[in-house]
Amino acid sequence: MVDVIAELGDRLVRYCRIDTQSDPDSKTTPSTEKQYELLRLLERELTEMGAADVTLLPYGTLVATIPTTVETNAPTIAFCAHVDTTPQFIGRGVKPIIHRAWDGSDIVLPDNPTQVLSARELPYLASRIGHDIVTASGTTLLGADDKTGVAILMTMARHLLANPSLPHGTIRLCFTPDEEIGRGVHPELPKALGAAFAYTLDGGERGELVCETFSADLAKIEIEGVSIHPGWAKGKLVNALHLMARIIDILPQATDTPEVSDGRRGFWHVVSAGGSAARSRPAPTRTPARIPAWRGARARGSGGPPEDRPTIAAGPTAAGPWRAANTTASCPAC
Ligand SMILES: [Zn+2]
C-alpha cells in the first residue's frame, strides 16, 4: 500500500527544488520560461499516472481530468494550484530539508545559521510539534507557496486514479503560472477548465477555507534627482534617495500596512527600494521604488464591512524638482 504522506513529502521536495520564479518585468506569458520545467514534469507525471485530457495550454497552464467513477450526474469540480514562486527572494538552488517528527527545539537552517525558526516566536509552528516540518536551507526561499498545493493535487490525482472504487464525479486539475506577480487567471481558462466549481489550494493554516478574493494594484515610482559634486552642491543637488524616503514615509504606516491591519482592511506594502543619490549630470539619477497598493479583501476569519480606506497618491505630494512616473496607485476594489 502506498504511503500517501511519504509521497506527499517526496513530491513537495522534488517540486521545490525546481526554480519556477516569476518575473513582474517580463512581457511574456508565462513570465519566465523556467516555469515550463515544472509544468512539463507535471504533464509527464499526470500522463504516466493515467490522467485524461492532459493538456499544456498555450498560455502556460496545465489542465487534466480525473474521470468520474459514478453514474450520477455529479457537477465537474476543479482544483487549482500555481507553479510559480515569488521573485522577492532567491529561488535557485533550493535545498528542502524535512525535519522528521520535529521535537519543538529551534530549527537552525544550516546554510545560514542566523536563520532560526523558533516555536517561541511562531505560534503556528509551535502547534505542530511531532509533525514533519519542511524548510529551506537558509539561503533561498522554500517555495511551499504554492508547491504544497501542487504536491497535494498530484498526490490526490495519483491516489484517485489508482483507486477507481472511490466514488467521485469528474475532477479537473489546473496548474497555473505567474500568480505571485498578480497576472490573474487567463481569460480563456474558465472555458478550458469547464468546471461548475473550482477550488484553489494556496492557503495558510490547515483547515482554513477562504471564500473571497484578494485584489491588488502596483505602483512603480522612479525618481530623477539632480547630481552635483557635494563640495559645491548647495542650492543645486537634489538627492533622489531623500525624496524616496519622504514618499515611503507618507504612507499610512500606523494603520494600513500588512503588519498592522487584518480582515478586509486594505494595506500598502513597500516591496523594494534602492538606487543612489546621484553620480553625474547629465546622466540622470533614478531611484526606483516599488509600492504596491494592496487594497483588496483578505479573507481572514469572518471579516466584516470594509472600513475607511484612505486614498493616497504617493509621489506627487512631495515637493521638489524631481520627476515621478506612475505615481498614482489605485485599485478597482477600493
Ligand atoms: Zn500562492
What is the strand and helix layout of this fold?
Layout: H1 4-16, H2 35-48, E1 52-56, E2 62-66, E3 77-82, E4 97-99, E5 107-108, E6 116-117, H3 123-126, E7 133-135, H4 144-162, E8 171-176, H5 189-193, E9 197-200, E10 217-225, H6 240-250, E11 267-268, E12 272-273, E13 285-294, E14 324-325
Parallel strand pairs: 3-8, 3-9
Antiparallel strand pairs: 1-2, 2-8, 4-7, 5-6, 10-13, 10-14, 11-13, 12-13
Zinc ion is lined by residues 82, 145-146, 179, 202.
Task: Walk me through the structure.
The chain has 334 residues and is α+β, with helices and mostly antiparallel strands. It folds into three domains: 4-94 and 140-200, Zn peptidases (Aminopeptidase, 3-Layer(aba) Sandwich), CATH 3.40.630.10; 96-135, no CATH class; 217-325, Alpha-Beta Plaits, CATH 3.30.70. The chain has six helices and 14 strands. The chain has helices at residues 4-16, 35-48, 123-126, 144-162, 189-193, 240-250, and strands spanning 52-56, 62-66, 77-82, 97-99, 107-108, 116-117, 133-135, 171-176, 197-200, 217-225, 267-268, 272-273, 285-294, 324-325. The strands form four sheets. A five-stranded mixed beta sheet has the order 1-2-8-3-9, covered by helices on one side. The chain is globular. It starts with a helix and ends in a 9-residue tail after the last strand. The model is unreliable at 279-286 and 293-334 (pLDDT under 50). Zinc ion binds at residues 82, 145-146, 179, 202. Zinc ion is lined by residues 82, 145-146, 179, 202.
